[in-house]
Amino acid sequence: MSILSFRRKQSNPTPTTPDVSGFLTGYSIEVMPRTAAKVEDFRAILPQGTRVYIAHIDGTPLEDMVATAKRIAGEGFDVMPHFPARIIKDRATLAEWINRYQSEAGIKQGLILAGGVEEPKGDFHSSMQLLETGLFDQAGFTHLHVAGHPEGNRDIDPDGSDRAVTDALRWKQAFNERTDARMALTTQFCFEAAPVVAWTQAMRREGINLPVHIGIAGPAKLQTLIKFSIACGVGPSLRVLQKRAKDVTKLVLPFTPDEVVGDLAAAKAADPSFPIEQVHIFPLGGIKAATEWANARLNPAEIAQNA
């Protein structure tokens, strides 16, 4: 059943047109040093206060990461670099990363995750191990985001279940209750709303109330999205792309996330407790295409903040 098919209540009707503008307001975006270098000035394309995640791909020098963080922070944006456990050698290396980001770029936010490499390069293999060092709390980090997987994760649960993923969420919820930093779940991108709704409902039943920053793939060629989706382990919602790929008339057209964003906005309007706090955009078709798509759907007042 479509998300938009929820039965209306007379006292609190579901809007026929979802508030996509309100849902997208405050969106965040992800860049890498090499893609950020192609943007002359982020102030020309992003609303003020946008959080910019910097993905740390294996092999990227720390110097490039820190320089990118310093540059984007200097343009007035909140910067959240990745801390991928499997490419961090040891506690001393983690401490160096934290110190460099703080001392050179004034960073006190991080996305703490396992990372995409199969074999750890040192002592760490999970985000929980990084958090357990206590180094982020000692450094006074104000925001600690961790990974969320609305459609599961085969790296964590090879058998296709969600047991290990759920155990990790319970641990993250417990850690949230003993840290002063604000925590949230930043998720993998997906292409339909139903799995997200089901996932958030399951978290509620488990007593997990971390806010969700839902991952959305920005506009891109269908072939590009399918390639990244397979590489990143996107789950059943990949069928949305596969179904579209069967229509040869649509193969050359860019795929946009309007449908999934509209459905999620409607779900949030229908249920104020729906835990999606923000949208996080993966600009798989390029930063320019992603920001133009998002900004075109915001209220003019939000765009005016770019000045």
From TrEMBL:
The keyword Oxidoreductase applies. Gene3D superfamilies: 3.20.20.220. InterPro entries: FAD-linked_oxidoreductase-like. GO terms for molecular function: oxidoreductase activity. Keywords: Oxidoreductase. It comes from the Bacteria. This is Methylenetetrahydrofolate reductase.
